[in-house]
Amino acid sequence: MTDNIRKIPLVKYADPQTDTTGAYLPGRVFTCLAWGFIFVLAFGACLYHSMTKPIVITSANVSDEKIFDLNDRIPLSLDSQAPRGTVVFTVPDGVQASDIVTENLYNERRFLVHVCTDNDSYYGSVSAGGIPVDTGKVSGDSGLVKDLGVIYDKTGALLVFEMSGVYEYTLTMNENTVTMEAVNPGDIFDYIVVMDSAAPREAAGVAADVVDRCAKLLYAEGIRVYVTDPELAEEGRVPASELVTETDADIYIGVGVSHDGSDHHGIRTWYDPLYYVPGYGSIQLSESCLKNTAIETSNRALGISEAPEGSVLYDINMPAVYITLGNADNADEAELLREDAYRDRLARGLYKAVLEAAVQMGAREE
């Protein structure tokens, strides 16, 4: 596990539940429910809503980089008197919903809540005799939260929740009480994809970059994508096989590049021959990924192959594929892989393959 939490909040691209530029997704909350009304009526409806209903808190893109050291974490106790699947905590007087930012670090089963406040003793303070004298209280489902702590800095308090699994979260605030609900992803999303890339340092980061580009395209279609973080230390990272299970994912796509010597070029896919389901399975997904990326890039399709022994594909019980986007040892192909436009075409090929899979598996209409 890393010693630091990086960029709080750390949002590489807009979360589908909060990105107002994309399509509507289940679980996404709008502050104003009256977009279709004329301005005056919409303003009145929003004003009435703000006075009578709890405020929903969501994650947001923030440009400021804040570094918190986990070694500074103060342990907090969790009162178990809360409904199943929820956490309830108070915030200092004067804190507004806009002062609270969340981040779901699902690759670490960690959820962060940053409260912007100048109160540096609200949570976790004790007297000289070791008696708790803090004002802030946190109650929650003990089966949901494995550990809890707070880190203070000049910007406020960071509540760090170590969770028992991978969840989606909604937070609502009523006066100075925040209620956090944890929901299984499969209960709110119609189609879920786990994309697993090689480390950004591998072959100029082509695999990680293409995965990010593809995820953005899929988000706009209402498809939830969980992207692994290969930069995390292995002992602190949720394994891909567990991530697909805990998110109730529909398909898995591993993405990398090959190193096959300077004489070869092209795109290839691998599948698990031991996993078979009638209709649409790993072979069909492998064929679709190969076909669509090769067509989009006008590159050579090297075919589909059975995954080698020890591949993560054998640990995943759903349609799964590993694709190499090209051969980094071939000078001409390596140059292509560095081109921005070429990466866009690779991402679009994977995007089309995912849409095809969603249709074939009955999650979308053609």
Which sequence of SSEs, written as H and E, runs from N to C? EHEEEEEEEEEEEEHEHEEHEEHH
Q: Mean pLDDT across all residues, rounded?
A: 82
Low-confidence stretches: 5-53
Strand residue content: 25-35%
Order of strands in the sheet with the most strands?
Answer: 14-13-15-18-16-17
Main beta sheet, described? 6 strands, mixed
**Tally of helical runs:** 6
What's the number of structural domains?
Answer: 2
The proportion of residues forming helix, as a percent range, comes to: 10-25%
Distance between the termini: 43 Å
Class per helix and strand makeup:
alpha+beta
The radius of gyration computed from the alpha-carbon positions, rounded to a whole number of angstroms, is 23 Å
**Could you give the count of β-strands?**
18
Judging from the principal axes of the Cα atoms, what is the shape?
A: elongated
